[in-house]
Amino acid sequence: MAASGQSNTPPERRNAIEPPGTPPESALDLGESEAQFRAIFEGAAIGIVLVDAKRRPVRCNPALQRMLGYTGAELCAMSFPDFTPPEDLRADLEHYHQTIAGELDHYQLEKRYLTKAGEVVWGRLTVSLVNPKAGKPQYVIGMVEDITDRKRLEQSLQEAQEWERTSREEFAHQLLHAEEQERQSLGAELHDSLGQNLSIIANRVYQAMAQPELSPVLVEHLTAISQSAAEAISEVRSLVRDLRPMQIEEFGLTDSIRELVTRMAETALAHIDIYIDNVDDEIKGRSATHFYRIVQEALNNVIRHSKADRARFSLERDIKCIRLRLVDNGCGFEMKPEVHQRGLGLTSIAKRAQMLGGNAEIKSAPGAGTHLTVELPLRWG
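Above: the chain's sequence. Below: its structure in token form.
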């Protein structure tokens, strides 16, 4: 007995008894495949397009027509560069020609499309070669998934992150500016109030010591008071100078930095080698104050925290940038994110460098000292 769905009739006999005009089974299978392909092509949720070697759409399914806003006839009268933004076209064309030439069997990329209404939509394009046989007409089939919503979400997230970053930077800048204003105010208060009162005390002591017939004990006490007042006045002046670096306006940034480094080197346990180029023509005004603070903070870190016995300070300029380097042979520290949150002044240095359009790099390790580099690009560099 023949299996269900099969016939025992020989092929020649079967042909003789089949009605005239009945297509062979291979033709039925082909027609069935075409019907299935058409159903998939027409009903697919993603855009599908068949493109010839001249970059012209031959057939476009309804999903692609809805995505771009054109009818199938309109799309087939166009070339795909007509609905691709120029900035996205190069990569697409390059991959397309490689596919047509047989160098690629497929490629995928994300690109933008221009709709008939002039809007921009995003699609994930997957392209494959349809007929890889030599000497045959070359076609590619492209499948386009609409990813516009995802791209818009990514863009919104990126904009939010950029806004947050900008807000943080702006807040840091305002905080540094407020800190500078507070320093200026405190420096003025020390100079105008405490400094003047100490000067009055010193003058009164000087007048008292000028009186005749003072006992040696009283002279000794007045002399001690006079010395203490002089030391206090010197300390106040030093504090005012650090809080209000007015010498920048009078002597320039370069000389002010040289004076600062020399003065701090004299009080430091570490021997500091110093090399300084002139940078007055490049860093001026408020920028000069911020750069002075960078130097001040960096030197404070060496003196207070490094436990170094030797350091090297250099301020150099070349054709591209101004470069500040401060290297010590001290205890160093482990480079972890939380280090920047401690009171080492590293955050202040980095933020001020960023405000000046440059960057700060810090390298350190326990027992290996610390290497600070601050670079500010020159205007013509």
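Residues 322 and 346 are 19 Å apart (CA to CA).
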